[in-house]
Design goal:
The protein is an alpha/beta fold and 420 residues long. The protein is 39% helix and 15% strand. The chain has 2 domains: 37 residues; 353 residues, Alpha/Beta hydrolase fold, catalytic domain (Rossmann fold, 3-Layer(aba) Sandwich). Bound molecules: 2-acetamido-2-deoxy-beta-D-glucopyranose (3 copies).
Length: 420
């Protein structure tokens, strides 16, 4: 009897405890939502940019050897925006600019060691002026330009041909750049200032490939849109978007790292309402429509669970629609994954304005704007062939795209076909 009473008391207290914790969690969630809706400009940026996650800690005056780069191939640079914010960035030379170990064993020269900071800057600036291509890279949220998978990406780009350089920027609030507060308005200024800094060094805009990863794809797409709209059609060399999204509201709704909007995502009208409260917007699916003259390459992993592939497909369809002048339609659900292996019957789909094919072994799917046989240069620009590509990597995830050889191979093919 006494034992039963004890057991009852115990279940009672567990129930009460669950109720108490449930109440605390639900109340905190509602308070957080209320704060995000009532003071959006104050609270939303902290959850979207996550720039208070300051990892890894880096000696920015060093030459990034600890991240695996050859001595003398990376320098930190600083430049100012028109509103007087100082930004930090890395200028990364092609891997071949380091003297070969074989030549060193034979007494060959290396600039490292006896070089002053001034001499180093002269060497890097001269090299930049004769670069074949310059990749201007905007990273995703959290961390800084030295975060692991980002340096992996610079290394695959360093190995591309044609004297390829990288400028990897930390926008305001990140890394060694000024400020603790990131915002769409400020970062837009940073993006244009970064492009202008490269041009001011003596690089032709047609050699600049604007690159974004994850959150950075919104920055890159905005920049291409800005240059096109503000400065005329053929502003830059190319736009490369890795793990891109249609807009921040779309990304936020499904983002598992900050699942605040998940309760809304299965109800279309609630989802629309929730999205309308997001103030940092980065409307890429709209901005990408204004990138005529920019060759576009989108790369996404089929196993990206942070930003699902439909968002990159949406960007592809928007870019294609703007170029062909009619709204490109989506392929039916599953038609793409069901494509037969390459070179077999049924390995290729044709839609209005674009084609989808599998690469051998179905390692990836390549969607391409169909070359315009009528050479309608006004609509598609002179860099017609290969103008918009979308590569979906079957085993690729959100941060792991650099480890798939098909990614640099496709970037090289896309750059070459577009005369970059
Ligand atoms: C950072 O790097 C510079 C240049 O290599 C070096 O002189 C300095 O001692 C380093 N600082 C720290 C704290 O390691
Ligand atoms: C930026 O700084 C320069 C030099 O210190 C100054 O002349 C200029 O007025 C400043 N501009 C703004 C927008 O604060
Ligand atoms: C492009 O950027 C500049 C500099 O930030 C800005 O003044 C201009 O309004 C922007 N243009 C567009 C179309 O966004």
């Amino acid at each position: 009897m006494a034992q039963r009473k004890k057991a009852e008391r115990k279940t009672g207290s567990i129930g009460a405890r669950l109720l108490r914790w449930g109440t605390i969690i639900v109340t905190s969630y509602l308070v957080l939502l209320l704060a995000l809706v009532s003071y959006p400009e104050v609270f939303q940026p902290h959850l979207i940019y996550l720039n208070w996650i300051r990892y890894p800690s880096v000696n920015w005056s060093g030459d990034a050897q600890e991240f695996g780069f050859r001595a003398g191939t990376v320098r930190s640079i600083k430049f100012s925006t028109p509103d007087n914010v100082t930004l930090g960035a890395w200028h990364i030379l092609p891997r071949t600019s380091a003297p070969s170990v074989l030549s060193l064993t034979k007494g060959g020269a290396s600039p490292v060691g006896k070089e002053s900071v001034e001499d180093r800057d002269v060497r890097f600036t001269k090299a930049l002026q004769s670069a074949g291509r310059v990749f201007l890279y905007f990273h995703g949220n959290a961390g800084n330009r030295a975060t692991g998978h980002r340096t992996d990406f610079y290394k695959i780009i360093q190995d591309l041909g044609d004297n390829t350089h990288i400028i990897a920027v930390d926008c305001r609030g990140f890394g060694d750049s000024d400020g603790y507060f990131a915002s769409e308005y400020g970062i837009q200024i940073d993006a244009v200032a970064s492009f202008d800094w490269i041009v001011a060094q003596g690089v032709s805009p047609s050699k600049i490939v604007v690159v974004g990863h994850s959150l950075g794809t919104g920055i890159a797409t905005y920049l291409a849109h800005n240059i096109t709209v503000s400065r005329g059609i053929h502003g830059g060399g190319g736009l490369l978007l890795l793990a891109g999204y249609a807009s921040i509201p779309d990304a936020a709704l499904g983002y598992p790292m900050v699942p605040l909007l998940w309760p809304f995502k299965h109800h279309p009208s609630l989802a629309t309402k929730a999205k309308s409260f997001v103030v940092e917007r980065w409307e890429s699916s709209r901005n990408i429509r204004d990138t005529h003259g920019w060759p576009v390459l989108l790369v996404h992993g089929s196993r990206d669970y942070e930003i699902l592939p439909w968002q990159a497909r949406n960007l592809f369809l928007q870019a294609v629609s703007a170029r062909i002048g009619t709204e490109a339609v989506e392929p039916p659900e599953d038609a793409v994954t069901a494509l037969a292996p390459d070179h077999e019957e049924g390995s290729h789909l044709e839609y209005e304005g674009y084609d989808i094919r599998t690469l051998p072994g179905r390692e990836a799917w390549l969607w391409t704007l169909r070359p315009n046989k009528d050479a309608d240069a006004v609509v598609r620009g002179p860099k017609d062939i290969g103008n918009v590509w979308y590569l979906e990597v079957k085993h690729g995830g959100h941060n792991s795209l650099s480890k798939f050889h098909v990614v640099p191979d496709t970037i090289e093919a896309w750059a070459t076909i577009n005369g970059l």
